[in-house]
């Protein structure tokens, strides 16, 4: 019964069950078992209250890119907190960390994305993208041009804006009416939805859904298309190579702004600074968070290209948008140090040339013909795999079985964090993971899949 379980819980677990409302959590289920209390971490490992050492195959929530225990990041926060713990950038003031970070971000973003707006989370960055792209068209004298197009199964955060823009039906069901004038198109999920088409053909088909949608609602009503380079929280869906060039062509043809959500893909995850570099996308505006500070403090940014920035700055009026903690000096100092470390240690090049390809190869070689694994996709240090009941027909397990959660729990119990997204398992380890740790990770994935069988 609940009472007997509860008494076996540690005091932190008991208080957690009593006072803490967890995000994205079935609280009934959680409290039967008790939340696992994470106490400390180092490198790519975390430890729980019982002393278990666990390889963090998710870098927290796709964010602790430099791994845990980086003294330089703690020191950067400490020093900034003692010098200037807070000041705003609203009313004709600025400060060193915000300015230097804006310049550092502009030094790594592609194309002309050189104006940086700060927020505290990916969701706030996405809300900023939504408001700014619509405002852009209003400034162009076309306020009716306000439809945002996104994709099914996209994740863009859980504010009312991010929830509305995202394509997760479970989220749309809760929390009341969504933001209007948002349209969605299919996702480019070749393995799951491509049938017997080639990847190339399916990629074009999925991209042309954008053109169909634009024509259906009228090109002169569309503000922007918003998408992740690789859908992360949707299960790590890597689009076919034909997809992004076609999306780019369609956006140009109808003069639609292209907004790329780099919250997961940004800062080295795909083996380049941004997913946009990996897929050769030229965004007009881009959101980023997570890896920006390696998850050590909350901070996010929106990089704005010349087209939008010039229009905005040609106005003699306020841009009425911002957050108390936009460009927070301590978070900015930590992000600045994060980018420093990434450059000095050549983290992006390591992922691109060394650990990324090794991870992709080792993961596939660890699971040759594993009966549960229908397909593996990924690039750099991000990967997703489809768990299937039958490989030949790609038949999924009945959803009542929750095969993903069974696998995830085996991982948890065997020293590995691997996340389940429905029947897909996803991995996104810290970018500092070395080859020995990649071997360990892949062996554990194999073991846990065997236990799930
Ligand atoms: N956009 C993408 C692509 C994300 O993956 C996430 C979070 O996972 C968000 C936005 C929202 O970020 P946050 O949770 O920091 O609000």
Can you offer a commentary on this structure?
The protein is an alpha/beta fold and 453 residues long. It has 2 domains: 36-65 and 346-452, Aspartate Aminotransferase, domain 1, CATH 3.90.1150.10; 72-344, Aspartate Aminotransferase, domain 2, CATH 3.40.640. 42% of the residues lie in helices and 15% in strands. The protein has 18 helices and 15 strands. The strands form 3 sheets. A 7-stranded mixed beta sheet has the order 4-10-9-8-7-5-6, with helices on both faces. It has a 4-stranded mixed beta sheet with strand order 1-2-3-13. A hairpin with a 2-residue loop joins strand 1 and strand 2 (45-48). Helix 5 runs antiparallel to helix 15, helix 16 (347-366) packs parallel to helix 18 and helix 17 (403-413) packs across helix 18. It is globular, with a radius of gyration of 22 Å. The two termini are 29 Å apart. Residues 1-6 have low confidence and may be disordered. The chain binds pyridoxal-5'-phosphate.
**Could you list the spans in which at least 5 consecutive residues all have pLDDT below 50?**
1-6
Q: From the alpha-carbon coordinates, what is the Rg to the nearest angstrom? A: 22 Å
Number of strands: 15
Q: Which CATH first-tier class of the largest domain would you pick?
A: Alpha Beta
Read across the widest sheet, the strand sequence of neighbours is 4-10-9-8-7-5-6
The named CATH superfamily of the largest domain = Type I PLP-dependent aspartate aminotransferase-like (Major domain)
């Amino acid at each position: 019964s609940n009472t007997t379980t509860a008494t076996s819980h540690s005091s932190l677990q008991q208080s957690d069950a009593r006072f803490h409302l967890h995000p994205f959590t079935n609280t009934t289920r959680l409290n039967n078992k008790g939340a696992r209390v994470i106490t400390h971490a180092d490198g790519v490992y975390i430890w729980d209250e019982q002393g278990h050492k666990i390889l963090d195959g998710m870098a927290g929530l796709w964010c602790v890119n430099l791994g845990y225990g980086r003294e330089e990041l703690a020191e950067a926060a400490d020093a900034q907190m003692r010098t200037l713990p807070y000041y705003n950038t609203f009313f004709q003031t600025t400060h060193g960390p915000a300015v230097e970070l804006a310049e550092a971000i502009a030094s790594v973003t592609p194309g002309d994305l050189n104006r940086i707006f700060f927020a505290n989370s990916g969701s706030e960055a996405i809300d900023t993208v939504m408001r700014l792209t619509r405002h852009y068209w209003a400034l162009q004298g076309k306020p009716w041009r306000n439809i945002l197009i996104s994709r099914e199964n996209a994740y863009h955060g859980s504010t009312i804006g991010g929830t509305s823009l995202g394509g997760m039906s479970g989220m749309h069901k809760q929390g009341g009416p969504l933001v209007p004038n948002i349209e969605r198109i299919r996702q480019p999920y070749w393995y799951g939805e491509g049938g017997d088409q080639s990847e190339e053909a399916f990629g074009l088909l999925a991209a042309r859904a954008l053109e169909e949608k634009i024509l259906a609602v009228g090109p002169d009503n569309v503000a922007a298309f918003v998408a992740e380079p690789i859908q992360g929280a949707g299960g790590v869906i890597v689009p076919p190579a034909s997809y992004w060039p076609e999306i780019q062509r369609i956006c140009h043809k109808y003069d639609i702004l292209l907004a790329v959500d780099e919250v997961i893909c940004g800062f080295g995850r795909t083996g380049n600074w941004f997913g946009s570099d990996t897929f050769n996308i030229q965004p007009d505006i881009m959101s980023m968070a997570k890896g920006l500070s390696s998850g050590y403090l909350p901070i996010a940014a929106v990089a704005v290209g010349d087209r939008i920035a010039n229009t905005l700055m040609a106005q003699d009026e306020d841009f009425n948008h911002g957050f108390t903690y936009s460009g927070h000096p301590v978070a900015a100092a930590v992000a600045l140090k994060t980018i420093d470390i990434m450059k000095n240690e050549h983290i992006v090049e390591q992922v691109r040339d060394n650990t990324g390809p090794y991870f992709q190869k080792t993961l596939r070689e660890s699971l040759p013909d594993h009966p549960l694994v229908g397909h593996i996709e990924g690039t750099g240090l991000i990967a997703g795999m489809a768990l299937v009941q039958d490989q030949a027909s790609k038949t999924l397990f009945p959803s009542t079985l929750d095969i993903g959660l069974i696998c995830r729990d085996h991982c948890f119990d065997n020293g590995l964090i691997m996340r389940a997204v429905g029947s897909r398992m996803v991995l996104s380890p810290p970018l500092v993971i070395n080859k020995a740790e990649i071997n360990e990770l892949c062996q554990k994935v194999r073991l846990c899949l065997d236990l799930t069988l």
